[in-house]
Every structure is written in C-alpha cells, then in structure tokens.
Amino acid sequence: MNFTRWSARLPGTQRRAAREDHSSVPAARAEPGAAPQQGGTVGVPLPSAPDLEDLSARDILGRLPALVALVHGSHHHIAYVNDAYAAAFGPRPCGAPAAEVMPELAEIGLLPLMDQVLRSGTPRTVKSRKAADGRSYTVTCTPVRPDQEKGRDSGVLVYAADVTDHAEAAERLRASEGRHRETAVTLQRSLLPQELEQPDDLRIAATYQPGGTDAAVGGDWYDVITLGAGRTALVIGDVMGRGVRAAAVMGQLRTAVRAYARLDLPPHEVLQLLDGLAAEIDASQIATCAYAVHDPNEGLLVYSSAGHLPILVRDEDGTVHRAEDPIGPPLGTGGWIHTSGTIPLPPGSTAVLYTDGLVERRSEDIDEGVGALERALSGATGAPQVVCDRLIRSLNVTAEHDDDVAVLVVQHPARTGAAAELFHNASLELLGGIEAAPRARAFATGVLASWRFPVELCDLGVLAAGELVANSLQHGTPPMRLGLRRTDRRLIIEVTDGDDHLPRRRRAEPADEAGRGIEIVASIATSWGSRRTPGGGKAVWCEFVLPR
C-alpha cells in the first residue's frame, strides 16, 4: 500500500502536501522594474506610475473636485484658487485680501476661524455650513508654514467639500422627526384634561411639560374627577417608556380611572381594578399611579399608591409632610393587594402630586430630588398655578429637560369673612323609629331657612331629605345620620346608615307601595349617588345647584 497517497486523503494533509510541493520550487526573485506575476503570466511589464515628486501641487489641487483656496498673511491675501472653487464662486484675483473679494467665506463664518488657525497653527473644521448659493460645505482650514527663502508669510489652506446632499438628507430627517414628535406631543396633550374640574372646596392647577427635543414623549398624566357630595378624586400617573405607544397606553389608563372613579370605590380598590386592566392592555408596559380622594367633611386625603412617588402636603405654616405609606408595586405587575392611607389636608394646606421627571436626576439619588422638592414647596406660596411654576423653576426643569414632567397642585383654602359665610355644615343623628322622619324634615326646614335659600329651593331640599331619611329608615340599619352642607355653588344632602346595600333607581309600578323615594330624589335634584363607607355601611346623597 502506498502510504503517501493514502495519507494525502486525510483531512488537512492535502494542504500541507501542497505547501511542501511549492516549497520545493525555487522562489522567483523580483528583478528591478519587473512587474509582479498575475495568473501565472511571466514577464509581462506594466506601465510605471509617476513619482510624487514629478507632480506639482498646482496640478494635484487643480484636479480635485473639492473647493481649494490658499491664502497668505494676516490679511489672507489670495495666492491660489482651484478650478472647482472658481466654478462655484467665480475666479478670484490673486493678491487681493479674502475679506474683500471672497464674501462667501464671511457668509459661512470662516474668516475668524482662519485667523485662529493662523495664530495657533492648528487645523480647524466646520461642518455643514450653508453659503449664499444655497449649497452646504464642510470646510477644513489647515495652516501652511512660512517660506523664508521666498519671503512668504504663513498661510491657510482652505479645503471645502460639498455636502449639500448629506445636509438636505439630514434636514429631511430632522423635519420628519420633528413631525413625529409634534404628533406625539399633540396626542399626549389631547389625552390630558383640556380643562381641570374645579371643586367647590379646592383650588387646583396642573402643568405638563414634555421633554426636550432629544427626549421622546412619555406617558405622564393627571386628572381631577368630582365624585359628588363635595368629594374629589385626584390622579397622577406615569407610563414607563417613550413615544406614541406610551401615550396611547396612558390614554387607556386615564379613561379607565375615570370609569372606576364613578363607582366611588376606596382608592385601593380603584388601583386593584386598574392593576388587572394594565396587564391586559400591555403586559410589557409598566405604569405607576397615585389615586387620592378628598372629603371636605373629614379634612383628609385618602390615597393609595402603585409604585408612585409620595404625595407632599404643605401646612399653612410652611411645614411639609410626606405621605410615605402605603406604597404598592407598579400597575401591571399583579399579585399584590393594595391598601389605602390617609394624610391631613386642613384648610390653608397645599398638596402636590408629581411624576419622576420633576425630581429624578442621573447624577443623584431620587430621594435627594424629593428632598429638594420639599424645600421648594415649603417656601412656595400663592395661587396653585403660581406654585406649579415656582416648583418647575426651583427644580431646574427647562425646555430641554430630558424627561417629561407632570405636576398637580391642590389647595384647600382657608376662608374667612364673607367667603366663610358661604360654607356651612349641619348634621342630625337619626335616633328612634319612624318618628325620626318628621324630626329630620323639621331639622332640614330650619337649617335651610337659616341659610337664606329661596323658598322653592328650601321646599325641594326638605322633600329630598325626607325621602332619603325614609329610605334609610326602611332599608338601612343604625347608626343613621342626616348631613346638610352648603358651598358657594351647591346644596348637598347626605344620609348614612349601617347597611351596605346600595339603592338603585327603578321604575315603580302603579300598584307598588314602595320604590318611589329614589325616583323622586333623582327627579328633583341636580344629581344623586351612593357609595359604601370605609367603616361599613353606605351613604346616599343628592345635590342642588344654587341659583347664581
């Protein structure tokens, strides 16, 4: 057996054998002026290339498609312009100062740069400068050493490349990005409240500022929802991510919050429903949200937070409190039972709800940003919109901020004098059996008369109070209470009891002996509603808008 042939068939051996065969052939020695062999052709001479010394600088520069000019001296006297430069701007007389006969250099701001290059001896480049002819150039100025033998001063070689096509493409790209950003900002703003609801007992202002041109639009939002009976829901949220998708998810969550708020549920139950919905909308989008309810009768802000930053409350004396707990995970994570907490909001105090763009900085911990906001809030006084603007300025949020910002400022004003006379509360504990109904009507008659309401409004208020009390006596359980409240805009009548079964409006048949109380209230009042109370039981209320 021929072991040599057999081993040549093994992987890797043929290449080694080939190398060995070539090594046995003497290497060809390159002769001076001989061309290298190509494709096995031997001895075919190629034309020799000229040496660089054989070409003049004028020939080289004259053939360049770029614009070239050479100037000398402190006044930049023209020594040379190539054909491309003359074709673009016309011929230039040699020896003339560039400032006088080369206006195109001044148009693109090149004369100061040439002075700098002449002094420093360092090349400088300016990119995409537009000249008067409408074309764009990228220009490099290179220093030229002086020639002592010829008595020539130092100079500057100007090299300009025409980048008009690149500049126009970049301009089209910027315009397209600007249109997309404008569309996203328009969508974002259209999904936010166009006009904030202003409750009777609160003064509210909000500010939304999108991020700078380099930052895509985010999903920050806020909302104010009147719940009836003087209660108000306050919402602030932030969808993680940027762009139109985040804004669209934000719009869906905001709509859902308004729908859930109409159920008049406790804050933690609203967030519980919103958590499940957020996972269904987009499992990849995580959102934070804080939902709070203000009740003027209790002077409290009942709130729940899903991963959002704490609410801040400033007392009338400037002391700032932080609503720390309870805080659950962001919306869409699931598997968490949210809870509600309370923080006082007495007359004269101010609450601030905000998104992370206001306090988060890359160079510092977010707690430092919240601390800076607390210090800014402690000295911020004035109307709610004034407080918004001061907080934005104090936290150094500018038009070029790298994140969008939403701020909601809520003030519970302290009223004195004539303004205080327009806000009153009165209540009566409903003790005993059916005899509580006439006592309630008598109480309502006296209170409404003392508040100097028109006779017609007094009669309607007494009728509504009687029907609500009768409904509670028939279907509710103790303890029962009748509450009357007036503001500068409306009369509110509310009855609470210990039964948590909520009434519903239905059409009573002619033969029915019951079921007409809520129908009567709904017919004569401006609005009515019911809700379950935190300690168990329910509250049924109605409102009458006061005549102007």
Report on this structure.
The chain is α+β, with helices and mostly antiparallel strands and 548 residues long. It has 15 helices and 21 strands. It has helices at residues 3-8, 13-23, 57-63, 83-89, 98-101, 103-107, 111-120, 164-191, 244-261, 267-281, 366-378, 384-394, 436-450, 455-475, 517-524, and strands at residues 67-72, 77-81, 124-130, 136-144, 155-162, 203-209, 219-228, 231-239, 287-295, 300-306, 312-314, 320-322, 327-328, 341-344, 349-354, 405-412, 424-430, 480-486, 490-497, 527-532, 538-545. The strands form 4 sheets. Strands 7, 8, 9, 10, 13 and 14 form a 6-stranded mixed sheet that branches. Strands 2-1-5-4-3 form a 5-stranded antiparallel sheet. A 5-stranded antiparallel sheet has the order 6-16-15-11-12, covered by helices on one side. Strand 9 and strand 10 form a beta hairpin. Helix 11 (366-378) crosses helix 12 and helix 13 runs antiparallel to helix 14 (455-475). The termini are far apart. Mean pLDDT is 85; it is low at 1-36.
Question: In a nutshell, what does this entry contain?
Answer:
With 548 residues, the chain is of the alpha+beta class. Helices cover 33% and strands 25% of the residues.
Shape descriptor reads: elongated
Biggest pleated sheet: 6 strands, mixed
Please give the share of residues in helix: 25-40%
Total DSSP E strands:
21
- The value of Rg in angstroms is 41 Å
Strand content of the residues, in percent?
A: 25-35%
Number of helices: 15
What number is the mean pLDDT? 85
Are there runs of 5+ residues with pLDDT below 50, and where? 1-36
Distance separating the two termini: 120 Å
Going by helix content, strand content and strand pairing, the class is: alpha+beta
